[in-house]
Design goal:
134 residues; mainly alpha; 7 helices; globular
Length: 134
């Protein structure tokens, strides 16, 4: 049920924005939808075990990202053979899942636009840059 909710209520509404190249708008929408149902997600985030919130969320994000990547990466030269669509989707799903889970557990005090900006800040800089700027 949780997987269905994440797919249908969070990811599906954002997909048209992502496919249109409006990734920031899609992130804001997803964070807004989670925040709108904060009571549910505030409890769901603490589900542990085989069907943990984190595992289900990562899986759903990873599959959605893979769909987007595979839809837009045809006939492109790869920067490196290891950078497969699967690896890239998993990397970004893991980082997005970390932000979503941490944001929910912190009470969603940061507004959706701001948490989107924070996420973008982290993923557009090298680790060295982030450490220097702290």
């Amino acid at each position: 049920l949780l997987e269905w909710i994440i797919r249908v209520q969070i990811l599906e509404p954002a997909k048209p924005l992502i496919f249109a190249g409006l990734v920031d708008e899609a992130l804001v929408l997803m964070f807004t939808l989670v925040q709108k149902d904060r009571a549910f997600y505030g409890k769901a985030v603490y589900l542990e075990g085989q069907n943990s919130f984190e595992a289900i969320t990562k899986k759903c994000i990873q599959e959605a990202l893979l769909e987007v990547i595979q839809g837009g990466s045809r006939n492109r030269k790869k920067a490196h053979p290891w950078l497969t669509p699967e690896h890239v989707a998993e990397y970004y799903a893991q980082s997005m899942c970390f932000v979503v889970v941490s944001w929910i557990k912190s009470g969603m005090a940061v507004e959706p636009k701001e948490i989107t900006d924070i996420y973008n800040y982290m993923i557009t800089r090298s680790m060295s840059q982030v450490i220097e700027e702290l």
